[in-house]
Amino acid sequence: MVERRGVLRAPLEGRVWRELLYLLVGLPLSTLYFALAVAGVSAGAGLLVTFVGVPVLAGVLAMCRGFGYVERARVRGLLRVPVAGPAPVRAARRGVLPAMGALLKSGSAWRHVLYSVVHFPWAVFSFCVALTLWSYGWSMLLYPLWFWVFPAFTDRSGLQLFQNGDYTFTLDSPLAIAAASGLGLVLTLLTPWVIRGLVTVDRVLVTGLLGRSRLDDRVSELESDRGVVVDSAAADLRRIERELHDGAQARLAALAMELGLAKEKLAEDPRAAARLVDEAHGEVKTALRELRDLARGIHPAVLTDRGLDAALSAVASRCAVPVRVEVDLPSRPAPAVEGIAYFTVSELLRSLGGHAGARSAGVDVWKSGERLLIRVTADGQDGTGPSGGGVPAGLAERLDAVDGVLVVDSGPGRGTTVTAELPWRA
Questions:
Q1: What are residue 366's DSSP bridge partners?
Q2: What distance in Å separates the CA atoms of residue 94 and residue 100, rounded to the nearest whole number?
């Protein structure tokens, strides 16, 4: 019943009227685009024997990019489809000649020229089909309301459809009028779907030729990922500096003071000097342990020497809760990916164990195709997810910087499962 109502309402929906207006306006605009693009490219190509052809072609490309701006605005306004514009054309150096060279080498600019040429025949076809179906459908549907015009102002009794010699077929009988109205109803109900199909082709043309290319999207993604990597590296450097300043450096300064006091008391009070030396020895061992932990946090030697299995087992042994570790890899991944996998598991174990109230955890690492998969599970009862602190902030962005994916599944009473996916080769 709902679908039937939708079919009956379709001719009156605002969306259909906007799509019809889009097709009707598209023909004059496309005619203008086609004429200017063909004339400009022909003139520029003909003048390439001289230098004049270069600025002419560059001007045509810039003009067609302007056409693309109008078309994207028309699609956004009438079809409600957001189409991102292509990346701006950037020249390597400032100046008119580098700018023209960048335009001539721009693939997006030539795609705009292609759109200006290809869209014209399609605009003619869609304009004729949409206008014909729409006008015939509504005129026939409403024929019972206006057929009186013929006998009132002409010598005919109705709309004449056919004449062959003495035989004439005119829509003037009640049956013919009803049949014409029924045919108009069919056309009126069918036209919105035909228009929607025509507009779909336009959307594909605009998106494919006037929108951002996959290369543009990839460049933007890499620029964003580069910012994430730089921020992460800066945060790691600040963490290392803070740990050195507040940890090992402070202990070494205290150690120097204690050894100085022991040196002064060595002749006067050997027993007190020995006690100070013993305390200094303890500080030395503590400072060495903190330095080893810091070095392990930068890049553990066990990861370089023995791989993920041994390195993750070492992380699990230091965890506050029992952790099961299973690593099933046919070989070692790229060193960069291996390091990211190690630190991902380390941060997840530390965070999940502290925030989710876990009593035990598990780590599974395996290879699937050309991807490295990591699954960390914790049996915490509060179902802490990313918003609650169960997953370190920024971890998903770090993985995304190397085309990785992070998925969190958590809920009250069923613990937390975090799955990470990394490329096997960075």
A1: 328, 373
A2: 11
Query: Residue range 89-101: average pLDDT?
Result: 81
323, two tokens: 């952790």
Residue spans per domain, the chain: 2-210, 219-298, 307-423
CA atoms within 13 A on the CB side of 169: 7
In terms of pLDDT, which residue wins out, 214 or 148? Answer: 148
The helix (H) or strand (E) run that includes residue 175 is: helix 174-205
Separation of alpha carbons 63 and 415, rounded Å? 59
**pTM metric for this prediction:** 0.57
Phi and psi at residue 211, to the nearest 5°: -90, -170
Strand partners, 163: 168
Could you tell me how far CA 269 lies from the centroid of its own chain?
73
CATH number of 307-423: 3.30.565.10
Q: How far apart are the first and last CA of the chain?
A: 54
Q: Are strands 159-164 and 323-328 parallel, antiparallel or unpaired?
A: unpaired
pLDDT in tens, 309-330: 888 888 888 777 888 888 888 8
Helix axes 174-205, 107-141, angle to 10 degrees: 170
Contact 244, 119 (CB under 8 A): no
Tell which wins on pLDDT, 334 or 25: 25
Tell me the average pLDDT of the chain: 79
Q: What is the pLDDT of residue 289?
A: 67
Instruction: Label the pairing between strands 371-378 and 361-368.
Output: antiparallel
Same fold? 219-298, 307-423: no
pLDDT higher than 50, residue 152: yes
Q: Give me the residues paired with residue 408 across strands.
A: 418
Q: What is the pLDDT of residues 39-80, one digit of tens each?
A: 999 999 898 888 888 899 999 999 999 999 999 999 999 998
Evaluate whether the domain defined by 219-298 bears CATH number 3.30.450: no
CA dihedral sign of residues 16, 18, 21, 27: negative
Contact in structure between 361 and 353 (CB atoms under 8 Å): yes
Sign of CA dihedral 26, 106, 219, 335: positive
Question: What is the token pair recorded at 24?
Answer: 């009707």
> Which residues 6+ apart lie within 8 Å of 418 measured at CB?
348, 352, 375, 376, 377, 391, 406, 407, 408, 409
Task: Give one word for 403, left, alpha or beta, with left for phi > 0 and alpha for psi -120 to 50.
Answer: left
- Distance between CA 121 and CA 126 in Å, rounded? 9
Q: Which whole number is the average pLDDT over 288-298?
A: 61
**What is the pLDDT averaged over residues 195-201?**
93
